[in-house]
Amino acid sequence: MSKEITADQTARYQQALATDPTAKVLERAVSHQGILATSADYASETDMTPVFSIDLDTGKVANQKQSGRCWMFAALNTMRHHLADLFNLSDFELSQNYTNFWDKFEKANYFYENVLATADQPTSSRKVAFLMATPQQDGGQWDMLCAIIEKYGIVPKSVMPETYNSSKSSELNSTLNLKLRKDAVTLRKLVADKTSDADIAAAKDKMLGEVYRLLSFSLGEPVSKFDFEYRDNDKNYHIDKGLTPKSFFDKYVDWDLSDYVSIINAPTADKPYNHTYTVEMLGNVVNGRQVKHLNVTMKDFKALAIKQLQAGQSVWFGCDVGQSSERQKGIMDTKYYDKDALFNIDFSTTKAERLDYGESMMTHAMVLTGVDLVDGQPTKWKVENSWGEKVGTKGYFVMSDAWMDEYCYQVVVNKQFLPDDLKKTQETEEPTVLAPWDPMGALA
After folding, report:
1. Closest CA to 337 of 49, 37, 47
2. What is the pLDDT of residue 91?
3. pLDDT tens for residues 294-310?
4. Which of 297, 231, 97, 414 has the alpha carbon at shortest distance from 240?
5. What is the 3-state secondary structure (H, E, C) of 205-252?
6. How far is CA 244 from CA 257, 422, 423, in A?
7. Which residues are tagged catalytic?
8. Which of 29, 136, 191, 412 counts the most CB atoms within 10 A of its CB?
9. Closest CA to 62 of 31, 36, 96
10. Three-class SS state of 333
11. C-alpha distances out from residue 370 to 181, 367, 373, 384, Å
12. How far apart are CA 94 and CA 76, in angstroms?
């Protein structure tokens, strides 16, 4: 039986505050300065000095501006770090707008296919409701970007630069989602009316043509052939003519993307360590690369990231950036805010509990470009963000090792760094399929 709050309860709570000599002081501080400023422990800033024993020089940070493409920026940053070293370039970027175009185009098709696959379910079903809540968005996963590059290649930013709608994506997203939901109504009706497969395919083809037009007007039409013209750091002029997006990737990045795999740390009961997982209805390219995670202990998770940094290569990673994070100063540290002491309330939960109860999930992707090892153990990490140079130290953040333990969920590493048993598992094990709303399906 439900119980209401009684007057006696309220009176007890009021009396407890009245007899607390610090209550009014804290009320004035918190109500005027806010919870974060009042609970901040600035000793954390001393501990998070941006000096690292392993520190990769990765140049100027990029800026995703008012868009949710952090996963894409972070992934392309790891590739441009490699490219810049090989070809003696600085302040070079790959086109995030090019991959953004194809990602949104493919996501539209992926959505249509999921609508057709669930057309026999009522709109009240959890899967249909999940689909309609966000037909597409800016966010994504490492494997999803690989699927785009494997199909469409990449290009320099100079040949397909940013547009208003790529840098400030809310108008495009709301318009595209309006269209996708309308198309979902049409597709579900066609299925309900037992329309032939050929007529449904024709209707979907028309819809995709309209999506292509919408994206072309908003983002510009993707280039299919181009010349790559640049000056290197020694001011030498170069021009490479007649490239395609795929030939550019093959020549200038030349990665076997199948070598780079997703490693997660999800210490929940439903995901035993040293096994692989995928997420239902998560992806962009139909019949393209599958999202596949290998779940490992935090000890193994960090060891793999360190090995890749020691080899001179940056590391894509996903985390819950809003937790215990000071954006302007670029500090991510579990000790930065002490809300427990401020309110005399125990807010602590485990990493597994936060995942299971919706308190945390992956919300942002960045790049690890350094780590400070003391007696062989990590104490803090250097992070390249994609929020421009006005935050952190010219756009770089410092993350405490304790923060990584609690709020980092994913790294992408070359599988050469995996021990033999984990490598075999990653390559051969059929992944367990998780529900579409599982936190490991969150898009950065």
Report:
1. 37
2. 84
3. 999 999 999 999 999 99
4. 231
5. HHHHHHHHHHHHHHHCCCCCCEEEEEECCCCCEEEEEEECHHHHHHHH
6. 18, 36, 33
7. 70, 364, 385
8. 412
9. 96
10. coil
11. 43, 9, 10, 9
12. 6
